[in-house]
């Protein structure tokens, strides 16, 4: 037993160094930082920048709507709705980041721009989750986005 006691400090040091390595790898990027980049691109109506943020196999879900793959998500979600939604804001309830994944979930608010003249502006809100994963090259990509909106209210 006495001969094994020398291993305790070594084991503790190895465990600590492994934890620090994982923490250090995750420390450079947070879900908050990734989502802030996404929000900035959305609010500045930069569809090209948003395209670069999506994983090849990204999923977008909202109610019965399910778009899959970068092209479909870019065309059917981003490009078809970007002109009608502005001032995206997130209120985070839960967030975590590790070496391979980062997510935030909570509620969102947006200004809804009418597509018909004479119709008043609206306020949209609902729940969200955005899940980011590192791709094989180590680049963070949005892998999953789910929005569950309430009916739009007149402003």
Question: What attributes does this structure have?
Answer:
single chain; alpha+beta; 7-stranded mixed beta sheet; 4 helices; 41% strand
Gross morphology:
globular
What is the rounded Rg?
21 Å
Specify the helix fraction band: 25-40%
- Number of DSSP strands? 7
Based on the structure, what is the oligomeric state of the protein chains? single chain
Query: Roughly what is the average pLDDT, rounded to an integer?
Result: 86
Distance between the termini: 73 Å
Structural class: alpha+beta
Relative strand content? 35-45%
- Counting DSSP H or I runs of 4 or more residues, the number of helices is 4
Low-confidence stretches: 1-26
Walkthrough of the structure:
The chain is an alpha+beta fold and 155 residues long. Helix content is 34%, strand content 41%. It is built from four helices and seven strands, in the order αααββαβββββ. The chain has helices spanning 7-27, 31-43, 47-53, 70-81; strands spanning 54-62, 65-68, 85-97, 101-112, 122-134, 140-149, 153-154. Strands 1, 2, 3, 4, 5, 6 and 7 form a seven-stranded mixed sheet that branches. Strand 5 and strand 6 (140-149) form a beta hairpin. It is globular, with a radius of gyration of 21 Å. The N and C termini lie far apart (73 Å). 19% of the residues are buried. Residues 1-26 have low confidence and may be disordered.
């Amino acid at each position: 037993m006495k001969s094994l006691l020398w291993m305790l400090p070594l084991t503790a040091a190895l465990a600590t160094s492994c934890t620090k390595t994982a923490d250090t790898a995750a420390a450079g990027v947070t879900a908050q930082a990734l989502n802030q980049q996404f929000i900035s691109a959305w609010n500045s109506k930069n569809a090209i920048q948003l395209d670069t943020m999506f994983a090849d196999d990204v999923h977008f879900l909202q109610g019965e709507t399910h778009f899959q793959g970068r092209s479909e998500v870019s065309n059917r979600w981003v490009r078809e709705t970007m002109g009608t939604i502005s001032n995206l804001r997130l209120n985070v309830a839960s967030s975590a980041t590790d070496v391979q994944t980062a997510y935030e979930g909570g509620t969102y608010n947006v200004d809804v721009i009418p597509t018909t003249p004479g119709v008043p502006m609206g306020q949209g809100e609902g729940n969200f989750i955005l899940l980011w994963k590192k791709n094989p090259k180590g680049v963070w990509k949005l892998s999953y986005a789910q929005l569950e909106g309430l009916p739009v209210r007149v402003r």
